[in-house]
């Protein structure tokens, strides 16, 4: 394996079996080699052959290196990962990432820190709720915890979208709709709340709706039957009692089928663009786009971000409609990640199809190397109760078994009374299921689609595929990847290796983006063009923190591009044991 530019070959040397498969001697296969007559390139119709001279160099011993480390060198472990590694070891680290929606129940500095300690990797802010000042306050609290306390929690804003199917009863909390009670759905604008009155956000919400049709709120939380039309308003009777949450979503059904209506409105509303500008100014890490219909809106937003922000803000597409399912692959390819919004999706497709559709979306994301979040109603009962149902735990376990990158809490953390307990359930359940998947060696059953188009991309992909296979076969304790933009870290994650992936980067945007990648612990540290120096420095710093012990084996991958040499690329694998 090699790359155009500076080439690097990989390999290992195994001696007497000692740890799992064998004790690995300290060898480095991956010394960069400049373009020279040593290389020969031959081309034919079927393939390109690349030959290179392989060079070997021993790694400096621990005692030799200690004197060269600068005092006060920083290794960007967040405090939670550092604690978990010390307590549980490499294979005890949780790989599935956890996203928490922040709301009134958990917006104080103390509650946010509790969530961070309990394993929250990404904090989600739903722009449908609360004021701009509230969101700014939460964002700055999280950034304060990151900067002053050593946490590494990424921040995501979730756009409201064109809320043509959103209704609100005007109260700040939920309202109970009793069976046979009569309610009015109106487009009239008023402040506050009125008894048995629900305000629609879009004036044309009732177009094409007839008496006898059903209004389903939030995918089945409450159901109404339309009794009569009164101008643009609807007079309805509650047929399935339940809770009406603030800013709930409604759908219309006729004869057991969704009443589909195509509103010709842009994916991103005027308010969404205002929220995006706000997000840029607040240095957020992710933007989740609601009600995505096709790839165009995602491409447009990414172009806008590239022109307005110096930071690489990642764009996630929410899959929550039939339209998005029909264009799934193009949306996944255009985005930086996917959120499966099962609640809204369950309104538009039969409930019994949700499990298979979720699995299909997860599979497509894995194939195209995009992180995927499974969201909505994972532990819905814990909004009100301190323990989940067994069915909810089984649901979470299945998501982990499908190798989704992340699990997300919505109302459970935002408005629930037991947000911390809900997060604990996600953490313990995912850790247990990951262990079960390792025992079953399920990674060997996964077949990846080839993604690379250019030769360097193809080689990077093959390096990562081979690196994970080596890591699993040799039973190494960890994979270290040195990366400026996170590409090879994501390719390693895609293969779902048994050992954890530690991604060393000197770019904070990359670090925060990798918080959403399965199995990746991102670390912010200085990186130089001297690859061997990077490896030696980080290994010694981790040893000094007591997080590595003698005979631990690590596999090292790099995609560092030396800044000083425009055409040079350093991609390599090396395996070493700790002495």
UniProtKB/TrEMBL annotation:
Provide the cofactor list for this protein.
Answer: K(+); Mg(2+)
* Pfam families membership: PK, PK_C
Q: Name one GO molecular function term.
A: potassium ion binding
Q: Give the reactions, separated by semicolons, that this protein catalyses.
A: pyruvate + ATP = phosphoenolpyruvate + ADP + H(+)
- Gene3D superfamilies (UniProt xref): Phosphoenolpyruvate-binding domains, PK beta-barrel domain-like, Pyruvate kinase, C-terminal domain
Q: In which pathway does it act?
A: Carbohydrate degradation; glycolysis; pyruvate from D-glyceraldehyde 3-phosphate: step 5/5
Q: Give start and end of each Pyruvate kinase barrel domain.
A: 94-422
Domain (Pyruvate kinase C-terminal) ranges: 461-559
Matches recorded under PROSITE patterns:
PYRUVATE_KINASE
Q: Which family does it belong to?
A: Belongs to the pyruvate kinase family.
| PANTHER family in alphabetical order | PYRUVATE KINASE (PTHR11817)
Q: What is this protein called?
A: Pyruvate kinase
Native source species: Anisodus tanguticus
């Amino acid at each position: 394996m090699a790359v155009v530019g500076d080439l690097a070959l990989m390999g290992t040397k195994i001696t007497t079996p000692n740890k799992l498969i064998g004790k690995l001697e300290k060898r480095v296969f991956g010394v960069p080699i400049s373009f020279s007559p040593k290389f020969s390139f031959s081309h034919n119709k079927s393939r390109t052959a690349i030959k290179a001279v392989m060079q070997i160099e021993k790694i400096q011993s621990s005692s030799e290196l200690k004197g060269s480390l600068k005092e006060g060198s920083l290794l960007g472990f967040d405090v939670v990962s550092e604690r978990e590694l010390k307590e549980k070891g490499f294979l005890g680290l949780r790989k599935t990432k956890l996203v928490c929606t922040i709301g009134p129940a958990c917006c104080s500095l103390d509650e946010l820190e509790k969530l961070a300690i309990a394993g929250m990797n990404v904090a989600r802010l739903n722009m449908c709720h609360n004021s701009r000042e509230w969101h700014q306050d939460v964002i700055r609290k999280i950034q304060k915890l990151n900067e002053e306390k050593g946490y590494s929690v990424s921040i995501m804003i979730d756009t409201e979208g064109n809320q043509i199917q959103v209704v609100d009863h005007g109260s700040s909390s939920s309202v109970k709709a009793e069976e046979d009670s009569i309610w009015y759905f109106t487009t009239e604008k008023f402040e506050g709340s009125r008894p048995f009155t629900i305000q629609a956000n879009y004036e044309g919400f009732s177009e094409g709706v007839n008496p006898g049709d059903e209004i389903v709120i939030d995918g089945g939380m409450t159901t109404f039957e339309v009794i009569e039309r009164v101008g643009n308003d609807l007079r309805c009777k509650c047929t399935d009692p339940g809770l009406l949450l603030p800013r709930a979503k409604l759908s219309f059904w006729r004869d057991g089928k969704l009443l589909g209506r195509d509103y010709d409105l842009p994916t991103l509303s005027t308010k969404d663009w205002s929220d995006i500008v706000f997000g840029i100014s607040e240095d957020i890490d992710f933007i989740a786009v609601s009600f995505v219909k096709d790839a165009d809106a995602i491409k447009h937003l990414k172009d806008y971000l590239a022109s307005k922000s110096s930071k690489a803000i990642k764009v996630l597409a929410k899959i929550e409609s039939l339209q998005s399912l029909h264009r799934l692959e193009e949306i996944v390819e255009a985005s930086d990640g996917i959120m499966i919004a099962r609640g809204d999706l369950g309104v538009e497709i039969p409930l019994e199809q949700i499990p298979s559709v979720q699995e299909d979306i997860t599979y497509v994301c894995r194939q195209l190397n995009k992180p995927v979040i499974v969201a909505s109603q994972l532990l819905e009962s814990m909004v009100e109760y301190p323990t989940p149902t067994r069915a909810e735990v089984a649901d979470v376990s299945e998501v982990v078994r499908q190798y989704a990158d992340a699990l997300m809490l919505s109302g459970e953390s935002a408005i629930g009374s037991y947000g911390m307990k809900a997060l604990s359930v996600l953490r313990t359940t995912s850790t247990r299921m990951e262990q079960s998947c390792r025992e079953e060696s399920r990674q060997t059953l996964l077949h990846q689609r080839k993604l690379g188009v250019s030769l360097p991309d193809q080689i990077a992909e093959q390096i990562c595929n081979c690196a994970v296979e080596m890591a699993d076969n040799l039973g190494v304790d960890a994979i270290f990847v040195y990366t400026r933009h996170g590409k090879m870290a994501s390719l390693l994650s895609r293969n779902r290796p048994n050992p954890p992936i530690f991604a060393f980067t000197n770019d904070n945007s990359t670090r925060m983006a990798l918080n959403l990648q399965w199995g990746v612990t991102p670390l912010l540290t200085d990186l130089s063009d001297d690859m061997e120096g990077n490896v030696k420095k980080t290994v010694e710093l981790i040893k000094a923190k007591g997080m590595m012990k003698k005979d631990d084996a690590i596999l090292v991958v790099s995609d560092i591009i030396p800044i000083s040499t425009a055409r040079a690329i350093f991609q390599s694998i090396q395996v070493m044991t700790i002495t």
